[in-house]
Each structure stands twice: as C-alpha cells, then as structure tokens.
UniProtKB/TrEMBL annotation:
KW Ribosomal protein (keyword) present: no
Location of the RNA polymerase sigma-70 region domain: 20-79
Organism: Paractinoplanes atraurantiacus
Example GO molecular function: DNA binding
Family listed: Belongs to the sigma-70 factor family. ECF subfamily.
Keyword Ribosomal protein in record: no
Signal peptide stretch: none
Keyword line: DNA-binding, Sigma factor, Transcription, Transcription regulation
Name of the protein this chain belongs to: RNA polymerase sigma-70 factor, sigma-E family
Amino acid sequence: MPKRTDSEYLAFVHGRVKGLRRTAYLLCGDSHQADDIVQETLTKLYTRWPGIGHVENVDAYVNTMLVRVFLDERRRGWWKVALLDWLPDRGPAPHVPVDDQSVVRTALMQLPPRQRAVVVLRYLCDLPVKEVAHHLGCSEGTVKSQCAHALDKLRLVFDSAALDRL
C-alpha cells in the first residue's frame, strides 16, 4: 500500500475544493461557515493523507468527512450562537421578485441538519441512495424516510409545480 505524498494532497485539494465548498454551502447555507467546514475537512484529510493509500474512492471518503464535519458542527453548536444587537434582514419585501436560488436556500435552512444533508447529497449532488447512506453512516431505509420527511416539509414551502421545476 503506497503512501500518498504532500504534492498529491495539494493536487487533490486544488481539483476538489470548489465542489467541496459548494456542497458545504448547500448544507449550511452560509459561505463563511462553509469555508470553515471545508477547512476542517481538509485539515482532517491532511492528517490522514499518508495512510489512505488503500482508499479506492478518495472523493467519496472526503465527501463523507465533509458531511460528518457539518453534522458534528450542528450537534455541538448551541453555545456558538452569537447574540446580535441588531435585527437581521428578514428577506425581501413581498412585492420584490426573488430568484429560485434564494428560495431553495431558505427552504433548505428550514430543514433539520440530517434531512438537509440527505436532500443536498441526494438531489443537489445527485448521489444514489446507497451512497448517501454510506456518507451519513445510516441505512438506505433511513435515507429514504429522511428524504420523504424533508420533501414533505419542502412541499409546504413550494407548490408542487415549482418543486417539479427544480
């Protein structure tokens, strides 16, 4: 089993960082937090890099790490809540047209973290149920039920025609 080198790590990261950041952003909905998730994932990957010569699909390995970093962050995050002395923007006024991306982002943020992870991996990253289950460390049945619950919640936000369009 050959050891992987630092130059291989750098080449891997340069080729994948945009996709990892996109997935992290879809999971958390905040670009700064997405950067933190990717940074933590890549740091963990670097510490394990020399020993993962036996891993056949490094992309799947890293995606699994990314999702787990996101879920771990959600589990331990209640004390990280920042109290603001101003009210955040509540979105555009009702008469202002809203693009589909912001609607999808807002809808995703209303889902619990596990359901959001399932929807992002299944539909936005286009992974099969089996692979999503592997990434999340759960059964295929759990992925299907989490997906069904998430889609039910999303249907409350979107009418069925808009959901079919997405």
